[in-house]
UniProtKB/TrEMBL annotation:
Residues 1-19 form the signal peptide. Keywords: Signal. This is YGP1-like protein. GO terms for molecular function: asparaginase activity. The gene is SKDI14G1640. The lineage of its organism: Eukaryota, Fungi, Dikarya, Ascomycota, Saccharomycotina. It comes from Saccharomyces kudriavzevii (strain ATCC MYA-4449 / AS 2.2408 / CBS 8840 / NBRC 1802 / NCYC 2889).
Amino acid sequence: MKLQVFLSAFLACSSAVVASPIENLFKHRAIKVYHSKGINSTLPIWNGSNVSNATYANSTNSTTNTTSSDNSQLQVIVTGGQVPITNSSLTHTNYTRLYNSSSALNITQLYNVARVVNETIQDKSSSGAVVVTNAKSLEALSFFFSIVFDTEKPIVVTQDSSYAIPVANDKKAAKRGVLSVTSDKLVYSGVFTPASACSYGAGLPVAIVDDQEEVKWFFDASKPTLVSSSSVIRKEYSNFTSPFGLLENGVPIVPIVYDGGYSTSLIESLSSAVQGLVVVSSGSTNSTSSTIESTEIPVVYAQANTPLNFIDNKDVPKNAVGAGYLSPIKAQILLSIAAVNGVTSKSALETIFP
Ligand SMILES: *[C@@H]1O[C@H](CO)[C@@H](O)[C@H](O)[C@H]1NC(C)=O
Ligand SMILES: *[C@@H]1O[C@H](CO)[C@@H](O)[C@H](O)[C@H]1NC(C)=O
Ligand SMILES: *[C@@H]1O[C@H](CO)[C@@H](O)[C@H](O)[C@H]1NC(C)=O
Ligand SMILES: *[C@@H]1O[C@H](CO)[C@@H](O)[C@H](O)[C@H]1NC(C)=O
Ligand SMILES: *[C@@H]1O[C@H](CO)[C@@H](O)[C@H](O)[C@H]1NC(C)=O
Ligand SMILES: *[C@@H]1O[C@H](CO)[C@@H](O)[C@H](O)[C@H]1NC(C)=O
Ligand SMILES: *[C@@H]1O[C@H](CO)[C@@H](O)[C@H](O)[C@H]1NC(C)=O
Ligand SMILES: *[C@@H]1O[C@H](CO)[C@@H](O)[C@H](O)[C@H]1NC(C)=O
Ligand SMILES: *[C@@H]1O[C@H](CO)[C@@H](O)[C@H](O)[C@H]1NC(C)=O
Ligand SMILES: *[C@@H]1O[C@H](CO)[C@@H](O)[C@H](O)[C@H]1NC(C)=O
Ligand SMILES: *[C@@H]1O[C@H](CO)[C@@H](O)[C@H](O)[C@H]1NC(C)=O
Ligand SMILES: *[C@@H]1O[C@H](CO)[C@@H](O)[C@H](O)[C@H]1NC(C)=O
């Protein structure tokens, strides 16, 4: 490997987690003012009139057979990332652009994208959905969708639509929950999407897309335990799959912070400004002596290291919850969805987190 390549790869990996010291949160003290009741979307209502039959995959013609025999449509929703579009009409693929963002989508935007994807997959004529997003949002978006969508239709999140379309069109993609396709053509369960290109330990891929854009599955179809039909999330928190809690509880603010020795009064004053906190567990797996805990807001400890580490409830302060195998960003998403649905008690969160 060339030194230059190695260096840039190293730098990209060293900034994998977006966390800040707690003090920085106070620079945005007025943030709670924006904690709006009700989701005020600036998106146009998606009613089909705005879609174009854009086509893809100029480079290969294996996608010409993208539609299944019943002529159903694959919808592609773009929020950022790479979309190779040509004028030639190759596929029966419908395409809609929502955002063209290069920064990480926030929870409001995630719910907005979910609403559009939901309308798409509820439509009988659609065979599934592909959502194209930027690298920073891939993990959050695919984990978020894994929780809020309980559907048999394939939903595939990707940075590059040309890899994801063959996956979404593959009959064996159904009944696996939400899938993500990384830029190295590996297919992951949305629950286990790697935190960044560098962290292969985050989850085992379930398939690979070959050069002929055929999908080679590694396993038979099954859903991750976290969201399987017998999971606590599906059995007891069916309201996680609806956005209606946003009307009651508003859009939550759940920052990710580094662990450190903070005074209890600092944490207490913070709890009036946020709806939850994800603490990046420092060093070893035992954070029981950390000072970050609260009786007012949920505090979840998550590990950012690879290979994967498990943060048990015994590894964290008394009033905090361990994120199990979830990364900080995944813990932030799950805590946000719980907050939207008014689920904030330690005992409830302990049953939801792995
Ligand atoms: C939502 O948008 C409408 C129209 O722009 C505005 O009248 C209303 O005040 C907004 N609601 C909130 C909660 O921001
Ligand atoms: C669909 O959206 C377009 C533009 O937003 C609007 O002009 C049109 O009236 C809408 N059609 C329906 C059926 O809602
Ligand atoms: C829909 O079409 C209108 C009018 O052409 C345009 O202003 C708007 O940005 C489009 N919305 C999307 C999501 O493409
Ligand atoms: C789809 O593409 C065909 C051929 O380019 C064009 O005739 C047709 O109007 C397009 N349909 C839509 C909805 O854009
Ligand atoms: C795209 O999808 C919309 C809504 O499902 C549908 O009305 C439209 O005909 C589709 N476009 C093409 C070109 O098939
Ligand atoms: C499809 O692939 C075949 C074999 O590689 C090639 O001969 C043909 O020109 C391609 N067609 C298109 C439309 O790209
Ligand atoms: C597309 O499907 C037709 C009929 O099912 C088949 O004959 C043809 O070889 C397929 N083309 C490609 C490129 O797979
Ligand atoms: C297909 O892609 C090649 C290289 O990316 C480009 O030169 C060519 O013009 C494209 N063809 C069409 C029809 O867009
Ligand atoms: C999410 O991002 C949008 C656009 O940058 C912004 O308007 C909105 O206030 C943000 N929402 C939250 C909850 O941060
Ligand atoms: C999707 O739509 C269905 C039917 O309208 C609704 O019950 C469900 O809550 C929606 N889910 C999301 C995530 O918006
Ligand atoms: C964590 O560390 C504390 C103090 O160092 C110790 O008492 C406790 O047993 C440790 N917990 C675990 C689960 O190892
Ligand atoms: C969602 O469901 C949980 C468990 O049934 C319940 O405790 C919570 O209050 C519900 N949230 C809303 C907003 O109804």
